[in-house]
């Protein structure tokens, strides 16, 4: 390779990192809900969509600054998650197929509900002008907002890792994951752990949605665009936080590099083929962990 | 009485496993529960912890009924459970396993109790080792330490010497004896090692098919009784 070729390749790597951060933030809520509660949440995409609409609504009706919309979306979607967990999911914990159907039903209800309230036309979330400019990162040029997404993703990963590995709450979660009966025998309320984790996962999807609403447009169906990637990240990563970080990094970079060599569509095709082959040999993902669940 | 079971019947699914179980345990005693494999000793301890599917009758601690309370609430009544097969959490470190016990405390303490470290020097020196890497005997020590971290009034020990090297069996027996005599912790112990049971026990229950078939002070646990109810 001549030095002239390095610049666009480096550009692809930086872009890959940005793609990875978007996929990761889409997947992180799904990861902790799947990894902890063991529920495959088909409504995850709609939690993302709700986050986008929450930010849009708060911004357009109350003029809330965008950076405040992020925590607000977290709170609102976490609350929705809490209600859904208490009202529905908790009765289905030992029935994976029923949970799948129930969360799918929830996703339809949420999508239809939002359509009734906000209509089907696209909405937009405004961000401060500085976010829309571009910056040079080494050889690459990236929008400031993509850097913001990267930074927020890093912050959320660090915060989640801290919560799960350094706090008493995290210890309760990890104990319940390993052995629910033993956790209960030592005073841990597994029901409350599940409830809190589900709400937390929903809230994180809300933050993702509020970012995606800026990267693209806000639509009742927008969730489906992100949820496939989110599921891929979770499956390849094996359902752990660090697994998802690695999986998002790997797939994001591969997507970007393949796209650099060929084109976007073919890159995606290549990536999916690779993932299928990978899962053939490591069906439990990058970091398989033994789990005694329920 | 510290612990009362009053006509307790306990089910897995629709099948009653423990049938009309009743006894009263005064504070500071050591009760040995004996019987062949499958008579329901483990089920008795799991019933007290609230880990079976359904229970009828009443269980009281200090007169408070706990028979309807979920497991995590019962843990806070001072029940320290050491299950059969130990069930330490393999992905946790030794320290994390001990700290798990502190979630059952009601005094707000969240550190590793001194007692756990002084009783088990090996654990004290290996606090950051993954528990899954410990030997059977070390895991049993860890299971006892974890239960002690709850600051228990009653320890429920399910075959603590099962699958443990013979030279360590006596050591564990001694530790349990100290906990009972020196620290005044009440013990319920299921045990296949008659020697250990005779040494530690104040009273015994002999079980057969989910029921009590003989009971009394430990000196009344004759060889003839053991022959009749424990040999195959
Ligand atoms: N989880 C369970 N579900 C159904 N039956 C069980 C379960 N656990 C134990 N049993 C049955 O209950 C009976 C008593 O078992 P257990 O309490 O383990 O006996 P012990 O500890 O005295 O060997 C056995 O017949 C066993 O098959
Ligand atoms: Mg048993």
3D structure, described in words:
- The complex is a heterodimer of chains A (294) and B (232).
- Chain A has helices at residues 3-37, 44-62, 66-87, 96-118, 144-166, 168-178, 180-185, 190-215, 223-237, 241-261, 264-281, and strands at residues 134-137, 140-143.
- Chain A is mostly helical and 294 residues long.
- Chain A has one domain (6-281): ABC transporter involved in vitamin B12 uptake, BtuC (Orthogonal Bundle).
- In chain A, α6 (168-178) packs across α8.
- Mean pLDDT of chain A is 92; it is low at 290-294.
- Chain B has 232 residues and is α/β, with parallel strands linked by helices.
- Chain B has a single domain, classed as P-loop containing nucleotide triphosphate hydrolases (Rossmann fold), CATH 3.40.50.300.
- A six-stranded mixed beta sheet of chain B has the order 6-7-8-3-9-10, sandwiched between helices. A four-stranded antiparallel beta sheet of chain B has the order 2-1-4-5, with helices on one face.
- Chain B starts with a strand and ends with a helix.
- The relative contact order of chain B is 0.19.
- Chain A binds chain B through residues 168, 171-172, 174-175, 178-179, 181-190, 289-290, and chain B through 49, 51, 70-72, 75-76, 81, 83, 87, 89-92, 96, 99-101, 103-105, 110, 146, 150.
- The complex binds adenosine-5'-diphosphate (ADP) and magnesium ion (MG).
- Adenosine-5'-diphosphate is lined by residues 12, 17, 35, 37-43 of chain B.
List the helices and strands and how they pair.
The complex is a heterodimer of chains A (294) and B (232).
Chain A: H1 3-37, H2 44-62, H3 66-87, H4 96-118, E1 134-137, E2 140-143, H5 144-166, H6 168-178, H7 180-185, H8 190-215, H9 223-237, H10 241-261, H11 264-281
Antiparallel strand pairs in A: 1-2
Chain B: E1 3-12, E2 15-25, E3 30-34, H1 41-49, E4 54-61, E5 64-65, H2 71-74, E6 79-82, H3 94-102, H4 114-119, H5 121-125, H6 136-148, E7 154-158, H7 166-181, E8 186-190, H8 194-200, E9 203-208, E10 211-217, H9 223-230
Parallel strand pairs in B: 3-8, 3-9, 6-7, 7-8
Antiparallel strand pairs in B: 1-2, 1-4, 4-5, 9-10
Helix pairs in contact in B: 3-6
Magnesium ion (MG) binds next to helix 1 of chain B.
């Amino acid at each position: 390779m001549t030095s002239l070729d390095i610049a666009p390749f480096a550009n692809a790597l930086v872009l890959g990192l940005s793609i990875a951060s978007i996929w990761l933030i889409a997947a992180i809520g799904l990861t902790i809900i799947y990894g902890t509660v063991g529920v495959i949440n088909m409504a995850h995409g709609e939690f993302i969509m709700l986050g986008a609409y929450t930010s849009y609504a708060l911004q357009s009706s109350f003029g809330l600054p965008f950076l405040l919309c992020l925590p607000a979306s977290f709170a609102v979607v976490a609350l929705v998650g809490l209600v859904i967990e208490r009202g529905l999911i908790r009765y289905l914990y030992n029935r994976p197929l029923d949970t799948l159907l129930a969360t799918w039903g929830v996703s339809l209800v949420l999508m239809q509900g939002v359509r009734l309230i906000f209509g089907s036309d696209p909405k937009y979330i405004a961000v401060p002008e500085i976010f829309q400019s571009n910056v040079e990162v080494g050889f690459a040029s990236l929008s400031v907002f993509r850097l913001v997404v990267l930074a927020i993703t890093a912050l959320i990963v660090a915060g989640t890792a801290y919560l799960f590995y350094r706090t008493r709450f995290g210890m309760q979660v990890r104990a319940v994951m390993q052995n629910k009966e033993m956790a209960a025998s030592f005073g841990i309320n597994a029901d409350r752990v599940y409830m809190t984790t589900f709400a937390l996962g929903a809230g994180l999807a809300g933050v993702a949605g509020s970012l995606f609403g800026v990267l693209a447009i806000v639509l009742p169906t927008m969730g489906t665009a992100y949820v496939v990637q989110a599921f891929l990240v979770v499956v390849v990563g094996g359902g752990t936080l660090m697994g998802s970080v690695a999986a998002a990094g790997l797939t994001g970079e591969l997507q970007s590099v393949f796209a650099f060599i060929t084109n976007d569509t073919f890159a995606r095709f290549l990536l999916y083929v690779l993932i299928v082959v990978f899962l053939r040999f490591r069906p439990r993902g990058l970091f398989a962990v033994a789990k005694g669940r329920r | 009485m510290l612990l009362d079971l009053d006509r307790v019947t306990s089910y897995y699914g629709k099948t009653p496993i423990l049938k009309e179980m009743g006894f009263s345990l005064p504070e500071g005693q050591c009760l040995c529960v004996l019987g062949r494999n499958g008579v329901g000793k483990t089920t008795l301890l799991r019933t007290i912890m609230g880990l079976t599917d359904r229970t009828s009758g009443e269980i009281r601690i200090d007169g408070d009924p706990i028979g309807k309370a979920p497991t995590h609430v019962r843990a806070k009544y001072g029940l320290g459970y050491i299950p059969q097969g130990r069930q330490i959490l393999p992905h946790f470190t030794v320290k994390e396993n001990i700290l798990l016990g502190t979630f059952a405390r009601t005094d707000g303490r969240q550190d590793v109790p001194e007692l756990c470290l002084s009783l088990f020097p090996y654990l004290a020196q290996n606090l950051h080792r993954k528990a899954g890497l410990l030997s059977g005997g070390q895991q049993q020590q860890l299971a006892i330490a974890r239960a002690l971290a709850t600051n228990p009034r009653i320890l429920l020990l399910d075959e603590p010497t099962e699958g443990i090297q013979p030279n360590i069996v006596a050591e564990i027996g001694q530790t349990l004896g100290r906990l009972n005599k020196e620290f005044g912790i009440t013990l319920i112990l299921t045990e296949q090692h008659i020697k250990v049971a005779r040494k530690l026990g104040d009273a015994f229950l002999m079980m057969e098919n989910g029921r009590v078939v003989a009971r009394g002070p430990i000196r009344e646990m004759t060889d003839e009784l053991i022959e009749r109810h424990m040999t195959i």
